[in-house]
């Protein structure tokens, strides 16, 4: 077991208070958007050793997963993550072209795909996936503008996923003028005032306009499903799924990648053509992930990916001998509430307060947590981890994702 030191990211959409408060620190007044845990070269964790701090990769090699704390005070960019094949092709193309990894125009930061799962630590709002065609037409029916009218005609002529992608492509390649977007926002606000808000489409557009008043993303948001997660709920986003997180604090478990194709609501480089290419067929393509229960104290969230699973464990004096954590080849353990002490099979002990983290591996053997608190653990699933055989304690059902 080794204690971790992790890097934060100060993106402009971040919260000035949520992550500092979670870590028990005083905020600087500047936004803190994310804290990264893992071996990604853009923000690698460091481990404590007898010789001082060293990169986690020196001890663990390249870990296939990454965990983030994400705190959104403003909407994130409209984005899509590429598949493994698209990531390899895009990374190699930019490498051959000599685009520096830290260049503002660089899109592919690595050769990995980026499926991810959100685990809410607060009420968490997000836009994910396309609404069904009929629902988009209902949303558009209350609005009047040249762009909306043309989009409605496109959807009537070409229903389903292909029609929605055509509308999105038209919006991104030839965005409506700022004055037309402003008039649409006025219409959305009036509809909300009159009590008309089809599945929160108009209130979402009006909210986004407060932060990005002339952005085509306001119009794109009308195409997308809005979801709200409560604390302790999880949602899986596969590659090729369009999304834009809106607000809240969460854990993000993902494959070890920072590949993002953006098409609005950001000052970062846009790649609308690349985003369109990476879209995968489907409507919402999102799943609320229901946990499995290896014990009464632990919930395990394992979406349909090989790189990661997430366990959340409650620790209390009701278990005087401690609660077993997941023993895996690679694991990062974070205290997300209260205070706990983690012990390995050799009797080593590390005490964790909220926001503090450790790295564990197979050499640690069985792991036990004692104290009063809550622990989140991202780990590499394997033949000896419980996720492949988990059963629901009540209904004896396998772990499954609910669309």
UniProtKB/TrEMBL annotation:
SUPFAM superfamilies: RmlC-like cupins
EC number(s) given by UniProt: 5.3.1.8
Iron-sulfur in keyword set: no
UniProt GO cellular component terms: cytosol
Gene Ontology biological process terms in this record: carbohydrate metabolic process; GDP-mannose biosynthetic process
Keyword field contains Metal-binding: yes
Cofactor binding annotation: Binds 1 zinc ion per subunit.
Highest rank taxon of the organism: Bacteria
Keywords assigned by UniProt, alphabetized: Isomerase, Metal-binding, Zinc
Cofactor requirements of the protein: Zn(2+)
Span of domain Phosphomannose isomerase type I catalytic: 2-132
Major enzyme class: isomerase
CDD domains hit by this protein: cupin_PMI_type_I_N
Alphabetical list of InterPro entries matching this protein: Man6P_Isoase-1 (IPR001250), Mannose-6-P_Isomerase (IPR016305), PMI_typeI_cat (IPR046457), RmlC-like_jellyroll (IPR014710), RmlC_Cupin_sf (IPR011051)
Any one GO molecular function term: zinc ion binding
Active site: 262
Reaction(s) catalysed by this chain's protein: D-mannose 6-phosphate = D-fructose 6-phosphate
Sites where the protein binds Zn(2+): 79, 81, 116, 243
Protein name in the entry: mannose-6-phosphate isomerase
Organism: Aeromicrobium flavum
Lineage of source species: Bacteria, Bacillati, Actinomycetota, Actinomycetes, Propionibacteriales
């Amino acid at each position: 077991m080794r204690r971790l030191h992790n890097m934060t990211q100060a993106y402009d959409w971040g919260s000035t208070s949520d992550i500092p408060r979670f870590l028990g620190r005083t905020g600087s007044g500047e936004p803190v958007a994310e804290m990264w845990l893992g071996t990604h070269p853009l923000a690698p964790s460091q481990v404590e050793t007898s010789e001082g701090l060293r990169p986690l990769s020196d001890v663990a090699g390249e870990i296939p997963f990454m965990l983030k704390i994400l705190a959104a005070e403003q909407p994130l960019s409209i984005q899509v993550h590429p598949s493994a094949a698209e990531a390899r092709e895009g990374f190699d193309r930019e490498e051959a072209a000599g685009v520096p990894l830290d260049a503002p125009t660089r899109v592919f930061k690595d050769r990995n795909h980026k499926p991810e799962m959100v685990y809410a630590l607060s009420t968490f709002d997000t836009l994910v996936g396309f609404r069904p065609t009929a629902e988009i037409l209902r949303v558009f029916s209350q609005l009047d503008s040249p762009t909306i009218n043309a989009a409605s005609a496109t959807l009537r002529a070409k229903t389903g996923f292909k029609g929605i992608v055509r509308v999105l492509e038209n919006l991104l390649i030839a965005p409506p003028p700022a004055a037309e977007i402003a008039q649409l926002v006025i219409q959305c606000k009036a509809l909300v005032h009159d009590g008309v808000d089809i599945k929160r489409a108009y209130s979402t557009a009006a909210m986004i306009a407060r932060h990005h008043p002339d952005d085509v993303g306001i119009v794109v948001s009308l195409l997308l499903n809005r979801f709200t997660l409560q604390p302790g709920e999880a949602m899986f986003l596969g590659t090729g799924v369009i999304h834009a997180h809106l607000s809240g604090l969460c854990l993000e478990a993902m494959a070890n990648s920072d590949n993002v194709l953006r098409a609005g609501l950001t000052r970062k480089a846009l790649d609308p053509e690349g985003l369109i290419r990476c879209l995968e067929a489907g409507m919402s393509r999102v799943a609320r992930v229901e946990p499995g229960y290896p014990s009464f104290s632990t919930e395990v969230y394992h979406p349909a990916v090989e790189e990661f699973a997430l366990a959340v464990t409650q620790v209390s004096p009701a278990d005087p001998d401690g609660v077993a954590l997941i023993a895996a080849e690679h694991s990062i353990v974070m205290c997300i509430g209260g205070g706990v002490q983690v012990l390995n099979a050799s009797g080593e002990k590390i005490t964790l307060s909220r926001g503090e983290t450790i790295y564990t591996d197979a050499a640690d053997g069985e792991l036990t947590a004692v104290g009063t608190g809550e622990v989140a653990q991202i780990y590499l699933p394997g033949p000896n981890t419980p996720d492949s055989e988990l059963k629901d304690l009540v209904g004896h059902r396998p772990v499954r994702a609910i669309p």
